[in-house]
Each structure stands twice: as C-alpha cells, then as structure tokens.
Amino acid sequence: MTIILVGIFGCTDHEKTSEINQKTINLVDGDWLMTFQLTAEETLPVRFLLTKKDSLYTIEFANASEKIKIENVAIENNRLKFDDPVFNSWYEFEIISSSKMKGFWFKDNQEYKISFEAEHGDQNRFKKPENLLSKEIIDVTGKWKVDFSPQNKENYYPAIGLFEQQGEYISGTFITETGDYRFLEGNVYGNQVFLSCFDGSHAFLFKAILKNDSLIGSFWSGSHWEEPWVAIRDDKFELTNPDSLTFLNDGYDKIEFAFKNTDDELVSLSDEKFKGKVVIVNVMGPWCPNCKDETAFLTDLYSKKKKDGLEIIALSFDRTDDIDVAKKNIKKLKKHFHSEYEFLLAGKASKIEAGKALPMLNHIMSYPTTIFIDKKGNVRKIRTGFYGPGTGSYYKRYTESVADFIDKLLVE
Fold it and tell me: Which of 97, 104, 156, 168 pairs with 150 at a CA distance of 20 to 30 A?
C-alpha cells in the first residue's frame, strides 16, 4: 500500500516548483517506530500502527496489551496535527518521506515539548546495544522489590516490579503506594533490560543491568526527571495497604464540599440527589493516566450499579488556571469514556491545594484518591492510588473487591 512521493528534478520555474511541493506525500501503512529525544543521550521508543482509509489516517500506539487509537487524522501541507483522545496534549508531524516523519509532542502548553522521529518498519522496540558484554539473555520474569532513589531520603519510594519475559521481549509494570507505571514494554539483551511507555500524558523510560542478584537502573519521566532504582527478586514483598494511607482528621466524621460542574451548577454531597445513596468521591485529574484507568473502571461500575443506588462524584484538580480549559478537559474525558456521573471543578492540581479543598483529610498524597461513603454519609474507606489494568492480578483483585464492597453498602 506504499505510494511513493513525487520527486522534483531539474525544475527551475518557481511557480511549478511550488505547485509540485504542495502535492501530498502519502504515508506507508503498517508498523512504525517513534523515538522521542528525552536528553542528548537518551531516547524513548514507542511503536504505532498506521492505517489509511480514503484520505484519513488512524494511528494506534501500542504499549504491551494497551492500544491507544487516534482516528480521522488528515494530512495538510504534508503535515499531521492531532490531539490526544483523552489528555491535554497534541502531536505535530512533518512528513519527510512516505516512510519517515519528525515533529514534536506537546503537553498542556507549548512550553513543554519533546521532539521525535518516526520511521516505518517492523522492528524491536529497542535496538540491540553494540557494546553487549554478555550474549546470554537473562530472564527477569517474576516479582521484584524495587527502591527508587534509594540514596535520597526526600525522593525515595518503594515499589513492586512485575515482569513477564519471552526471549528478548519483556512487558510489565512498577506498582507504587500511589499508583502504577501502567503498561511497560521493551526488550532484554544480554544482561540489560529496556522498558518504555508512552500514553499521551506520560513518557517513561527504564533501563537496568543485572549485577549479581540485583537490577541496577535509571528511570526517566519525559525530559524533566531522572532517578536511579535498584531491584531484587522478592515474591513476598508487599507495599503498605493503600486503604491505610489517607484518613479523616480528628474532629471530622464526614466529607463536605461544594464545587461547580461544567454547567456552572453548584454540587454538594448534601444535595437531594445523594441523600440515602452510596457515594464514591473520586479525587482525580484529567491529566493523570492512573485516573484515566480508574475513570474507565468507575464508569463501568456506575452503569451497572446506578439503578441500585450508587452515585459517583469526580473532583477534578487540573493543571491549568483557565476555567474554560479545565471544563474542556473534563468534557473530553467524559466523552471518551461515556461517563454519566458528576465531574466537578475542584481546583488546581496540587496536593497542597487539594488538602485545602478537603481539610477533613490528613492529606492527598496521590491522584487518584477514592472515598467510599455509605447511605448515612459515613466514610467507610479511603483508597490512595489505583492499581490499573497494567498490574494484572492486582487490578483484578482490587476491582473485584470494590464491586463486592459496593454491593455490601447498597444492601445495608
């Protein structure tokens, strides 16, 4: 399905040259590899599938089993420009040839951008290093105890590494006390591990070398953050119970708030709509991939349990000061997931600001944080973070436990 671009040879007439240059370069269907330039030395790869129907293209990014589809992309003046389907980010491609593009990924505003190149071809996510010291491939399948920034008390946090490996291919994730790093995919070459994820909001790159029994690595988040990590195999290691990290302060026994929705209507838990109902209050942000995963889960839960007396309120803390942009971000998220429950404009995406908006809580340490309220208005449980579908059995166990817990509250 390749259509070769029109070549320009020996053209001296300016108008004729200009006319030929405007002819559209049609892109090759199939697998492409997109490489972000995070730093002068480090690049982050992500694969996508490009298909064409009539004059429009579909681009489908792949992170392990996750597929992120962007449809109805048009070429204008040999450029592609399109928005992410969920997040406040967008892409600008310049077509170099039928099998090569370059451009920028923008996030939130034009000040945060990362350059990339994209080439057609079926290839591994990561290229094999030329300086491999060992040709024997290690196998890192299993569960690992991970320490991020182990020598820095201020930035340190523990995690669980979950990896599945088949030959040189590897997938998995890292689970922390505030969420997970979603669907990671990559390659293992010799004693070196390479993993990455790009989901429209986060660009994650992990590298490590196995030394003795430990993985010694580095983690990059976009072009703005880098930290070391160390991991050892430990099938029994668990993190602090996420249900114990956020709780009501002394002197409080209920949650109270009043925020406006996108129609400028003030919504409060004391409204008649929520009286005598089981209510889930979801502290989230439309920029947050873990919140995206939980929104998908809560939307499905609400569709099944609304008739039985469940209500859900999402408190959206956004990165923008522009109310119109914040409204647009909420509407975009709701439209993508077909969410029918309330989303409220709760304030700026800051843990400090969220703490001020909800002073009855000891803190907000994670987006998302989810509060479960019974029919009498009592807080029965508060969950910090969310184990998304990239965590496999952790996601399955948690979502099943939430469904069971809601059923119990509904019959009380």
Answer: 168
